[in-house]
TrEMBL record:
This is PP2C family protein-serine/threonine phosphatase. CDD domains: REC (cd00156). One of its GO terms (molecular function) is protein serine/threonine phosphatase activity. Pfam families: Response_reg, SpoIIE. It comes from Paracoccus rhizosphaerae. It comes from the Bacteria. InterPro entries: Bact_Sigma-Reg, CheY-like_superfamily, PPM-type-like_dom_sf, PPM-type_phosphatase-like_dom, Sig_transdc_resp-reg_receiver.
């Protein structure tokens, strides 16, 4: 071993200019010294080795980036040295050039298969040697840049993963809070039974369903669907839930009752929300809604439809009717037109208010369930009631989508029970 003419960089010093360190392995002393002088004049630090074993030990100690090795060396050929060099644990690639007196295709193939990056034919032409090493340095720089970029990417991904875990936890908690907006999932008022379904597509969603009593004989029911998905829709849903809560001082529909007046009617409530969206909220969001008042003693139901899917009335004899003409969504137009619906429920009838996450559910090839598909689901599950009906419907929709549901799914089920059935349930 012959040391270079200036101090060698430490192998574990990342700031050291080890790209300029060349390990030169050649058993021919005269040729090795000649090449070493040439390399030093080219600005390289040089470490010399007389055979492959000595060169391999120096690689372990110094981890050079550039290696020049003669093909014919005692004890360990240049190809064997290269192969052993590639099996070493290194923090960098290392550019390996084999020097040979022949350029036979078989030898070139063997050198490349052993892991050599390049080869030079002896006698060495100085300009070719320096040009090859310069190319090797460029490759080393690119490799360092890629390694640094990969390290930064891994660090960024680790931070992103930590952030994602926090967001995931927060969204799970937000889902619990949003599910808590629906305080009661079912209710019974005289002959009328109400059942609710709320199934977000993600952690949180923009659907909301619910009901509240209005006096002794009436019930307020609502179903709404905020445009978009995720946190923005969920926040607007939470705000709307405050205006539709059971507390009379917060519930918009019940405020009139505080002054001895009647509760706000369905159409008035829709217009109130439309003005609130346009005048008080700086947002591009809008929502669809059905709000209704049901007299549970007489079965009379008044509803307003604001862009929400049509309520589906299933009579006791199995006939199905889609109610309403649609109406405009809330928060889009200054002077919207909402559809007002009046219908009377008879014993044995049921009314389903479903979100478009049900009617617009799609198969993988893009075919929607639609109104006809919903009718088929209702007929198939006609013998079921309450939450059993809603859960079976939700399962049918998920099966129709092959589990790839893209939208929130919500529903309100009103059932006007026959007297005989109520007696059996009691």
């Amino acid at each position: 071993m012959k040391p270079a003419n200036r101090p060698l960089p430490a192998a574990d010093d990342p700031a050291a200019p080890d790209r300029r360190l060349v390990l030169l392995a050649d058993h021919n002393d005269e040729e090795r010294r000649l090449l070493a002088r040439l390399l030093r004049r080219g600005g390289y630090d040089v470490v010399e080795a007389r055979d492959g074993a000595e060169a391999l030990a120096l690689c372990q100690e110094l981890s050079p980036r550039l290696v020049l090795s003669d093909w014919d060396m005692p004890n360990m050929t240049g190809v064997e040295f290269c192969r052993a060099f590639r099996t070493m644990q290194r923090s960098n690639h290392g550019y390996f050039v084999i020097l040979t007196r022949t350029v036979a295709a078989a030898e070139i193939t063997a050198a490349l298969e052993a892991g050599a990056d390049d080869f030079l034919a002896k006698p060495i032409v100085p300009l070719k040697l320096l040009a090859r090493l310069s190319a090797g340095e460029r490759i080393i720089r690119v490799e360092e840049e890629l390694r640094a970029s990969n390290r930064q990417l891994r660090e960024a991904l680790a931070k992103l993963s930590d952030t994602q875990a926090v967001i995931e936890h927060d969204l799970k908690e937000a889902r619990k809070l949003q599910q808590g907006l629906v305080r009661e999932r079912s209710g019974r008022f005289g002959r009328v039974e109400i059942s609710l379904l709320l199934r977000p597509a993600g952690h949180v969603g923009g659907d909301l369903v619910g009901f509240f009593p209005i006096g002794d004989d009436r019930i307020g029911i609502y179903a709404l669907d905020v445009s978009g998905h995720g946190v923005t829709a969920a926040l607007l849903t939470a705000q709307l839930s405050v205006h539709l809560s059971g507390s009379s001082d917060q519930n918009v529909a019940l405020r009139g009752a505080q002054s001895g007046q009647d509760a706000a009617g369905p159409a008035a409530l829709a217009h109130f929300f439309n003005n609130m969206m346009l005048e008080e909220m700086n947002t591009d969001s809008y929502f669809t809604m059905i709000y209704g008042e049901l007299n549970h003693r007489t079965g009379q139901l008044r509803m307003v439809q604001a862009g929400h899917p049509h309520p589906v009335l299933q009579r006791s004899d199995g006939t199905i009717q889609h109610l309403g003409r649609g109406g405009m969504p809330i928060g889009v137009m200054d002077e919207p037109i909402f559809d007002e619906i009046e219908v009377t429920l008879n014993p044995g009838d049921r009314l389903l208010i479903a979100s478009d996450g049900i009617t617009e559910a799609q198969t993988p090839n893009g075919r929607q369930l639609g109104n006809e598909g919903l009718e088929a689901v209702m007929r198939t599950n006609a013998f079921l009631h309450g939450h059993s009906f809603l859960e079976s419907m939700a399962w049918s929709v998920s099966e129709y989508c092959r589990g790839e549901r893209q939208d929130d799914m919500s529903a309100v089920l009103l059932e006007y029970r026959a007297e005989s059935l109520l007696l059996r349930l009691d």
